[in-house]
Each structure stands twice: as structure tokens, then as C-alpha cells.
Amino acid sequence: MQLHLYNSLTRKTEPFVAIQEAQKIASFYACGPTVYDFAHIGNFRAFLNADVLRRTLEAIGYKVNQVMNITDVGHMTDDGVADGGGEDKMKVAANRLAEAKKSGVLPDGVELDPSDPLAIAQYYAQAFMEDSKILGMEIIDDAETNADVMPRPTQYIAEMIAMVQTLVDRGHAYVAADGVVYFDVQSFPEYGKLSGNTMEQLRSGEGGRVNMETQAVKKNPADFMLWKPDPNHLMRWPSPWGEGYPGWHLECSAMATALLGNVIDIHSGGEDNIFPHHECEIAQSCCATDSKSFANYWFHTRFLLVDGGKMSKSKGNFYTLRDLVSKGASPAAIRLELIRTHYRSNANFTMQGLKDSQRQIDRWKRLADWLCTHGCVHVTKRPLQQAKEQFLTAMCDDLNVAGAIGFLSEAVSSYAVDIDPVDDGGDSTLADELEALQVIDSILGVIDLESCACTEDIDVDKIDSLIEARLDARSSKDWGRADEIRKELTCMGIEIKDGADGTTWTRIVQ
Ligand code: AMP
Ligand code: ZN
Hints:
The protein has 18 helices and 18 strands. It is elongated. It is an alpha/beta fold and 510 residues long. Residues 31, 33-34, 42-43, 45-46, 269-270, 272-273, 301, 303-304 line the site of adenosine monophosphate.
């Protein structure tokens, strides 16, 4: 099965072909959070859609090497201007915490030193990892075994300085009168291609707001900052251009190159990342590595709206995962609600929508439990196995989640879980149907299959005696009987493996 994916760079839906297609390996850089506060559900819409893309690639056979940065320095509040205007977001957090400290109230009663930005970043990064795990983001499993999967810019300063030096040496960057190193956008004719901004628009400041202070020293208003010497910045490092800090855009280019290579398959982010962030990343990376392309596919998720408008604290509709869970919402329902609308449309989050998602998950879970308890029943019809193919086909059509869920719902409706199933002697079993549901949920990630009814009261003695009987059958070369026993175990939801240390078993539903 081949994935077709909309590419923001070409504005076309294209067949996905990985750089390492023959090995079925896909590289994927996802722009992650800036850890100056708890991530909100809008942020998670972007991250979860990236997770759905990753899971879809895995379901069709790719190994996905995914990296997601956790920004702990250099992301400025004025990030619509590509030259480091405003205040570092970590400084915003430090100020907020200093205020909180004065009034004696810190979030969750935590002791955080406002003068220690790295400790603040670590605190919110930890919270982000916990929330991401609760929401079923697969990258967390990789991050638990390999720290390089979720890199922090403060640990890649040497790589960033080297990239700036290369850009200066190649004539793509210059030191301006204010001592700041800027990227010279005119040295890269493709600047503007991703966002659709022409050089004319950028020159007049239409492509992004213009910072009047820096206009005087830059060659072009669209030139953006790579390194800023600043003796007062809350975090700073020595560099050939003075003690200072890196630009936010540079961070992603340097980390993506260091961890995934010069050219990557997929790069994701929210729609607001297109300009200037990703536009700048492309310019830096292509010029520093002398490559025609930085990422072959650009994947952008449109914004999440809440109650039809922007999420805002004053409207009382600004939610983090923690807020919703404390109101009684389940993480699975939140996940489904955040991924069910096509990623290229705005999604509208409502409490009613959340309830509907929960109801749907409950139905799927009831069916999973029923299939589990009747795994040995032989059936001719196989609605979930058919739905699995249709589901994957819909997902491969630029992640048509709503269409895919439609096929699942249809299959689920064909079952009556209040009554016992009829064994019609067909050549499929309800355990096979459950396996199909498992594949579907490997992408959705919302049905708690681990706690399926059948896995709760598993009869270990019966499994052991069946395995022993199978070994006896094998030693007397009764292959037919050995095979029958294997099938019996399979329909009980048990998979066996013969290895050097004898026969071991695992539950099919993991
Ligand atoms: P930030 O922590 O501000 O760097 O944002 C992290 C990610 O969340 C970025 O990829 C943003 O594009 C994305 N994002 C922010 N707000 C929303 C929203 N309301 N809906 C969807 N994505 C968002
Ligand atoms: Zn980024």
C-alpha cells in the first residue's frame, strides 16, 4: 500500500517515496514544543497528527526514525519577525515564576528557581513527556531508550555554531553593524517558496512583520538572525561572534542535520510554523549542506479552534490535557477528538465533541472485549478484516481519518455484542477479527486493548498443558495434532514461539 501525502512545499498530494525506500526507512523531523509552560490541546493537535502520520507509515511497513525537538532557548515571543525580536520565551516563564514565587504560589506547588532557566525547561519538558505518553504519542517510547530522539537546543550549541560558520564562509550569512549574524535571503533564490511569499512582498514587510530596529542594519528586511551576541540574555555561550545565543530557526536545522542527515523525508509542524520558521530552516539547511532539498515532504496541521474561536484564557476555553483530565475527560477521547478532523482543516474542539468521541471509543472497546471472550468462534463473515483494508486505504489517502473511522464504524455496527455469536464453521475466527481491530488501533491508539476482558482472566494452566501436549505431539511426529493445538491457542488469543529455550507464549493483544 502506498501513502499519498499533501506536500505544503509543492501544494500537491504526492505519492510518498522515502529516500531509503528500498530499506523502508523514513526520516521524520517534527517541530516540538517550547517548554516555557504546559502544552495546550492546540499544540497537541499538531503533535498528534504527526503521530498519526508516523503510525500510518509504520502500519504500511516503514521503520520511522522520528526526532522532535524540545526548545529550551532562543524562541522569542515575537516569532512572526524572523530576527529574534521580543523576549526569550524561557525568560517569560522565569518572570511568571518569579511573580508566582512572590505571591507564594507556584504551579502544582512546585519549587522552581526563576533564575534557573534550564531547571524550568526541564520541569516543563518532563510535563510534556508525561502528557505525550498519556496521549499515546509513540515517539516517547523511543525517547525512553534514546535521548537523541527529543533533543534540546542547549545541547547542540557546537553544531549550531558550526552551521553559522559554514553559512558565513559560503557567503550566505554576514555580521551586521549591530554584531548580529544574519542570513542573507538574497543569496538563496528559493527563499519564499514554501510560504508563497515573493521577495518583493518580503522586502516590503508583507511576508511577516518588520522589526524597525533591525531594518537599518540588515541588507534586506527579510534577512533573519542566526546568532545574536547578547551579554544580558538569560542563557549564552561563547562563539566567534561574541557571547550570545542561537536563532530559533537555526536550532531546528542544526539538530535535524545532526540527527537525521542533510536531507530528510518529512518535516512537520503547525500551520504557523510555515513562515518564518520553516522557510528559514530550508534556507539555512540547503545553503549549509549544499543540498537541493532539506525535507522532501512538508506536513502542516491547521489550527485547533475551541468553541469556534481562538483558545484564550479570558474566554475560559484555554485547555491543557491536565485541565481536561481534571474535568473527567479520558485521554483516549481527547486524542480521538484531536485527530478526527482532517489535519488540513481547522478542527473545532467542544465538550460535546469530546463526549461523542468517548461514546464511540466505548463502543469499540465493548466490541473488542466481546471478540476477546469469543475468540474461538468460527465465522464466515469478516467485517473487521475488510474494514482494516478500507481503513488503511483511507489513511493512505492523505490521512483521511474521518473516512477511515467511517469504515470502522460500519464494521462495528454489523456486530451485536449483547448476544453470544453463532459459530457457523467458517474459516475465520473472532480472534482474527480482533487482530484486524488491533491493526486499526495501531493507528488510532484509542482502544485500550491491553485491558481487554479476555486478557484479564487468562487460564495459564490450560495454556501450559496445551503447550505440553503440542510438544508431545511433535516428538511423536504427529504434526497434524501439533498444528491443531497451535490453532486452539491462537483462538484463545495466545501466540507461541519455539526458540532455543523451549516454547514461550505471549498474548496476541499486547
Ligand atoms: P510552540 O510551543 O508555541 O512552539 O508550539 C508548538 C507547536 O504547536 C507548533 O508546531 C505550533 O504550530 C503548534 N500550535 C500552536 N497553537 C496551535 C493550535 N491552536 N492548533 C494547532 N497547532 C498549534
Ligand atoms: Zn522547528
